[in-house]
Specification:
The complex is a heterodimer of chains A (374) and B (485). Helices cover 28% and strands 26% of the residues of chain A. Chain A is α+β, with helices and mostly antiparallel strands and 374 residues long. In chain B, a hairpin with a 7-residue loop joins β17 and β18 (388-392). Chain B has helices at residues 8-12, 14-24, 34-37, 61-74, 126-133, 152-158, 165-168, 171-174, 202-206, 240-252, 265-275, 294-309, 322-333, 335-342, 357-371, 399-416, 435-438, 441-454, 468-484, and strands at residues 30-31, 54-56, 78-81, 98-101, 108-112, 117-121, 138-139, 175-181, 187-191, 215-222, 224-225, 230-237, 259-264, 284-291, 315-318, 344-347, 375-380, 388-392. By secondary structure, chain B is of the alpha+beta class. The chains are: A alpha+beta (374), B alpha+beta (485).
């Protein structure tokens, strides 16, 4: 049987499609994260596209789910604003070639290095419109910064990978672009040393917006990267204060060039270190102080610490069971690319039961990416 | 305010239920004498009262689990209570419900500065969380006005905000994990000291669910290093529109203050009479606070003042010391008390897109004229969270009803311009019946089906959040099922 691909151009068309559907769908935005299933027909939101509203002075953007991320970033840049949660482009990891969409970013709660300071995609999401498994068009949240009217299904939908409904429109909080970006680079730290430097940096009053460490940087040596953004005089002041406070005796450089700092953090955000290398790609969320010990117990080809150590990217051989090494520590591992393991970390019994019941309510016939999250 | 018909079977069984609860809990953890339960008849929304069947004050998560397990098995309604500071009636009892208060659960369980979190029991007050970490240079960011009294449990239930959330976010953005006790008495961890939790975002769902999905007994909260310093600038304007335009321009310029507070003439005058802060005589006043080193603050305040100049302010007062800062904040911080001296008031909490500020302010004053009631505005302007204060006389027959009707009109206006009914106080009983103005029947149905999952018998705080007519079928069904057991 050949797979069919549906590209609804209207929300009502999508709702009708789901309402009359008898067998499961795979749901994609731009199909960049590679989570589709072999056997199922596919629904793409890519034709539900366009920015519905953008109010720079209110820091608010509302757009259809299929709107290309690039289009949104260009629009925001025109007003000197941006999506502050810095969504990563994982095509270099997944080998996919599609165009990242806003809906895909929200459905996967995709968040980059700046998450450590200003929150994840789910924190910037203000409202959603989606089609549930019964084909109903539903709304939750809105387009204002503060909203506690009823249950927060916006957070629930963010990161639900299409298993609760197909996103059709989202409202997001956007933030101003800073005047200046500064990066303090510290060379030659061991993972443990880097961890304590990163913790000290995040415990300082200088408001870091990026805190990463790689044991093998671009030149093959360890480098720790600390980013500060804001008005130029303030950034220069803070970078120097930070150096004196957390790295007085280490080999450091300060970088203020817009091109170089942008490229450097793109490299971290998109995990370019792993590009063009085979193996399983794991994304691990742990308490930062647990990270170096955990990493030392895993057989890895490449490692990248982001979020001050709270997020660890690992490149391993397919037979390395990362989750087995995590026993006894709090956290979870997602298999972003590779084989041999479930994509998502197993949940405790109570949470698994609640999540299963929620999926059953939102999608009683099991049509939407069934089995993807459990 | 309509409440569901109490379950007489539960009320008739009071003696038996109290005795069963006494078997589950320490002797002093169950309160059932009629005059003692009166202390729990309302929260900070004092216009609505109802004494509960009984009150339980457990000391451990296990005791909470035992109580809920029992109440679920016996179909006894439960109303959770933090510190009882809800402005929306979130902790208001019903006649057939027991109040489950978390006040005795107030310990700090763990502080971890290198990973920047604190784990507390949720009966702890908001301000005492900061109190537990400030000697090490950290603080807990959400700062509702009631922070001296309000409990973290209530903050999580209502997803509380505060003046500083423009920069730091509200409770949900600062909550890393919870210990949740479900209505069936099961205990589970959701999230933890990590930055993101696995699977569906149940943490985001629990936060702001107004105590309807379970009881949170422990919380892991993000703590932040204190800034080097903070200072405000006060700016006075001859008209409300200029003040609104100034807010927009500050945000567009890429400055992200910690707080942008707005007061109109009625509030300014009330504050002056009450606190004598020395505010200028003007139509609208902005207080903008920024953080950083001394030099950084000077630079940011200079930028803000430069932007304000374009809007022809009648006065700009830039603080250069802690004393001057305190003086600028004095009036704003006493605003609610000051308004209370003039008359009784009802505080609304609708949120609007900031672009709609001028339109909404002028409509609010028109609505006030139509109803013949005075209304003052004091609010968080940066995020559009309005707090219109409608003055009324509680002793004058019909005035409260008039005030409620006027409040409802203002909230409908907020929804109409693209905003919402409540930005930080919650729906509770107060705005329950307005939910249909914001959400379609299907939108409400999917939210209620979430409650079906966590609380299939609709026992937890069930008279809140959803219009009674919308939830009636579910509550009736749950009750019928309970009866047949």
């Amino acid at each position: 049987m050949t797979k069919a691909m549906f590209n609804p151009t209207e929300v009502t068309e999508l709702a009708e499609l789901v309402r009359t559907r008898k067998s499961p769908f795979s749901i994609i935005g731009g199909d960049t994260c590679g989570v589709t299933f072999g056997e199922n027909d596919t629904v793409s939101t890519s034709q539900l596209s366009g920015v519905a509203l953008y109010e720079p002075e209110a820091m608010t953007l509302v757009a259809k789910a299929g709107t290309p991320l690039a289009e949104i970033e260009t629009l925001l840049a025109g007003e000197n604003q941006r999506l502050a949660f810095e969504p990563p482009d994982l095509r270099g990891l997944t080998g996919q070639t599609g165009e990242p969409t806003l809906g895909g970013v929200v459905a996967t709660n995709s968040s980059g290095p700046r998450r450590v300071a200003i929150g994840a995609c789910r924190d910037a999401a203000l409202g959603v419109e989606f089609v549930d498994g019964q084909g109903r068009v539903l709304r939750n949240g809105g387009r204002v910064m503060k909203n506690v009217t009823g249950y927060d299904l916006v957070k629930l939908m963010a990161g639900s990978y299409g298993t609760l409904g197909v996103l059709t429109e989202v409202s997001l909080k956007v933030l101003p672009k800073p005047e200046c970006v500064g990066v303090l680079l510290i060379n030659g730290l061991s993972d443990t040393e880097a961890l304590s430097v990163m913790s000290a940096a995040l415990g300082s009053p200088f408001e870091l917006t990026g805190v990463a460490h790689v044991p093998t940087g671009i030149d093959g040596h360890p480098v720790t990267m600390l980013r500060i953004e804001g008005f130029e005089e303030s950034v220069r002041y803070r970078i120097e204060q930070l150096r004196q406070r957390v790295a007085p005796t280490y080999d450091t450089q300060s970088e203020f060039s817009a091109d170089r700092t942008t490229a450097g953090w793109r490299w971290v955000c998109d995990v370019e270190l792993f590009h063009n290398r085979p193996g399983n790609v794991w994304r691990i969320s742990v308490k930062p102080s647990d990270a170096p010990m955990l990493v030392s117990q895993i057989n890895t080809d490449r490692v990248l610490y982001d979020w001050g150590g709270g997020l660890v990217w690992l490149l391993t051989s397919p037979d390395e069971d990362v989750r087995d090494k995590m026993k006894g520590i709090e956290g979870h591992a997602t298999l972003v690319r590779g084989t041999g393991y479930n994509r998502f970390h197993p949940e405790n019994q109570v949470v698994a039961k609640l999540s299963q019941s929620l999926r059953q309510k939102f999608d009683p016939r099991g049509l939407l990416n069934p089995g993807l999250m459990g | 305010m309509e409440l569901p018909k109490p379950d007489t079977r539960v009320i008739e069984r009071k003696a038996e239920i109290v005795s069963d609860l006494r078997n589950l809990l320490p002797a002093d953890a169950v309160i059932d004498s009629p005059h003692e339960v009166y202390a729990y008849e309302c929260d900070a929304l004092t216009a609505y009262r109802c004494p509960p069947l009984a009150v339980v004050l457990p000391e451990t998560t296990e005791q909470v689990a035992a109580i809920l397990n029992y109440c679920h098995a016996e179909s006894v309604p439960v109303v959770p209570r933090g510190a009882g500071t809800s402005l929306a009636g979130g902790a208001m009892p019903t006649e057939d419900a027991i109040i489950l208060g978390v006040a005795k659960l107030n310990a700090v369980l763990e502080t971890d500065y290198s990973n920047r979190f604190i784990r507390v029991q949720t009966g702890r007050t908001n301000l005492s969380v900061t109190g537990a970490v400030e000697q090490n240079g950290f603080f807990y960011a959400p700062d509702p006005s009631s922070q001296l009294a309000c409990a973290i449990a209530g903050n999580i239930a209502m997803n509380s905000g505060g003046a500083h959330c423009l920069k730091y976010g509200v409770t949900t953005n600062n909550l890393l994990g919870v210990t949740l006790v479900t209505m069936q008495g099961e205990v589970t961890e959701i999230g933890g000291p990590m930055m993101d939790a696995a699977g569906l975002d149940l943490l985001g769902l629990i936060c702001g669910s107004e105590g309807q999905l379970g009881i949170v007994t422990e919380a892991t909260l993000r703590i932040l290093p204190k800034p080097e310093g903070a200072r405000p600038v006060l700016m006075a304007f001859d008209d409300v529109l200029s003040a609104g335009a100034c807010v927009s321009d500050v945000i567009k310029a890429g400055i992200l203050p910690v707080a942008i507070e707005f007061m109109d003439r009625l509030c300014i005058q009330a504050c002056e009479n009450h606190a004598k802060a020395g505010y200028p005589d003007c139509e609208a006043l902005l207080i903008v606070e920024v953080e950083g080193s001394h030099a950084e603050i000077d630079a940011q305040l200079a930028r803000i003042s430069e932007i304000a100049q374009r809007h022809h302010p009648i006065e700009i007062r830039q603080s250069s010391s802690a004393e001057e800062s305190a003086k600028i904040w004095l009036g704003r911080k006493s605003a609610f008390g000051a308004m209370g001296q003039i008359n009784d008031y009802m505080c609304l909490d609708g949120t609007i897109p900031v672009s709609q500020l001028p339109k909404v302010l002028s409509r609010i004053s028109e609505i006030g004229e139509e109803y013949g009631l005075q209304v003052g505005n004091v609010f968080h302007a940066g995020d559009g969270n309005m707090h219109p204060l409608i003055l009324f006389d509680a002793n004058k027959p019909g005035d409260l009803e008039k005030c409620e009707a006027m409040g409802a009109d203002i909230l409908r206006l907020c929804v109409e311009v693209g905003g919402c009914l409540t930005g930080e106080h919650g729906v509770g009983i107060e705005k329950r019946d307005l939910m249909s103005d914001q959400y379609s029947p299907d939108d409400l149905d999917i939210q209620m089906s979430v409650k079906d999952v966590f609380d299939p018998k609709w026992l937890l705080n069930a008279a809140k959040v959803f219009p009674l007519a919308a939830s009636e079928e579910r509550r009736k069904q749950a009750l019928t099922q309970a009866k047949t057991i």
